[in-house]
TrEMBL record:
Keyword Transferase among record annotations: yes
Domain of life: Bacteria
Protein name: Citrate synthase
Upper classification of the organism: Bacteria, Bacillati, Actinomycetota, Actinomycetes, Micrococcales
Keyword Acyltransferase attached: yes
Any single Pfam family the record assigns to this protein: Citrate_synt
Family in the record: Belongs to the citrate synthase family.
Gene Ontology molecular function terms on file: citrate synthase activity
Length: 390
């Protein structure tokens, strides 16, 4: 048309202004609402950061206590929704279960899901923060054939989640503070990342006037792909395949460089970070520490470290400015905690939920928001006539 810029993958296009997250990809800087990720990961909690992302400032102690209390009181799933899980095969991927059950949540709250009603929006923000971890844990329990536990509202957000995943009905659950702190830290690192594919999806769906449940469910589906959140699962699968096959790290890297069968070094490369991913640096620092604190020695961590070293010294990766991203080392930690590989991206989704909600809410409140509707350059056939039509 002469008016359209062709930009595959939106490499050069800003679709919105946003005041939530700042990234400088060349310098490896990530800040939520101005606060450096390093400081938040070390000192804050998942819920405090969620508040920060949603409302722009750190909460006071009273605000945080009230927020935490509200979330604890919305953890229960409707008993009918629990039966929804039994209609799915136990082999279902937990990400599919998570997105389907999140979309299904919408059916229980249709009378309170008006995006223009701030009370509905706040209530559904609380509901999603409270219920997504429960759905995630039930997806896990279903996949291993164990009974669902009721949420234990005497526990913190993270401990409740760990108990729902690893507790069993007949035995008392013992909190492991090392695991709790490690998971809290990983969740914080995932909480937002400005206009990534899943957040852009949440915004696009939300721009049509769809409610939070539908928008977040769409975001979960976007995150599922191996080029996005699904990479954490793909990294572990890749490491396990190298280990099982006995292939040398050098040979694997050669295959990546030659793009043999489209094989990629999963957990490497990023659209925005071209020197290093500050989240990956923090995860890598934690990985050794957490594994030793949990008393786990995993040869896959050694393999990952070897792979990273070989890649970082190789011209292919240097020229393309490919470095480990957040997904490279997280899987090794999740595995040490006892999560099956197929739960890794679900953990990412729980981490990212506050960011999705914050972007959805920011978009609703922005007077400049319009329905998201990209242009195209048409390259198809010119006008032609259907046989017999003329
Ligand atoms: N292994 C091998 N080659 C790679 C990789 C990789 N992981 N990543 C990029 N390249 C190559 C790519 O083939 C291209 O080479 P050439 O110029 O010869 O065609 C060049 O580097 C530039 O890559 P690109 O595909 O144009 O970069 P992009 O910004 O479109 O893609 C990415 C970014 C993250 C999708 C990509 O780096 C990738 O596929 N990485 C592996 C999957 C992954 O780890 N994803 C997690 C991303 S971080 C967290 C999250 O978002 O969930």
């Amino acid at each position: 048309t002469g008016f359209t810029t062709l930009d595959y993958g939106f490499v050069n296009t800003s679709a919105t202004k946003s005041a939530i997250t700042f990234i400088d990809g060349d310098q490896g800087i990530l800040r939520y609402r101005g606060y450096p990720i390093e400081q938040l990961a070390k000192n804050s909690t998942y819920l405090e950061v969620a508040w920060l992302l949603l409302y722009g400032e750190l909460p006071t102690a009273d605000q945080l206590a009230e927020f935490d209390d509200k979330i604890r009181h919305h953890t229960l799933l409707h008993e009918d929704l629990k039966r929804f899980f039994s209609s799915l095969p136990h082999t279902a991927h937990p990400m599919s279960v998570l997105s389907s059950a999140t979309a299904a949540l919408s059916t229980y709250y249709e009378h309170q899901s008006d995006p223009a009603n701030p009370e509905h929006v706040e209530l559904n923000t609380i509901r999603l923060l409270a219920k997504l971890p429960v759905i995630a844990a039930y997806a896990h329990k279903k996949s291993i054939g164990q009974a669902f536990l009721y949420p234990d509202n005497s526990l913190s957000f993270v401990d409740n989640f760990l108990k729902l995943n690893f507790g069993v009905l007949s035995e008392p659950y013992e909190i492991n503070p090392v695991m709790s702190r490690a998971l809290e830290r990983l969740l914080i690192l995932h909480e937002d990342h400005e206009q990534n594919a899943s957040t852009s999806t949440v915004r696009l769906v939300g721009s049509t006037g769809a409610n939070q449940f539908s928008s977040i469910s769409a975001g979960i589906n976007a995150l599922y792909g191996p080029l996005h959140g699904g990479a954490n699962e793909a990294v572990l699968d890749m490491l396990a395949r190298i280990q099982e096959s006995g292939e040398s790290v050098q040979r694997f890297v050669e295959r990546v460089k030659n793009k043999e069968d489209g094989v990629k070094l999963m957990g490497f490369g990023h659209r925005v970070y071209k020197n290093y991913d500050p989240r990956a640096k923090l995860v890598k620092e934690s990985a050794d520490e957490i594994l030793s604190e949990l008393g786990v020695h995993d040869p896959l961590l050694d393999l990952a470290q070897e792979l990273e070293q070989v890649a970082l010294e190789d011209d292919y990766f240097k020229e393309r400015r490919l470095y480990p991203n957040v997904d490279f080392y997280t899987g090794v930690i999740y595995k040490a905690m006892g999560f099956p590989t197929r739960m890794f991206t679900v953990l990412f989704a729980i981490g990212r939920l506050p960011g999705w909600l914050a972007h959805w809410t920011e978009m609703q409140g922005d007077p400049q928001t319009k329905i998201g509707r990209p242009q195209q350059l048409y390259v198809g056939a010119g006008k032609r006539d259907y046989p017999g039509a003329v």
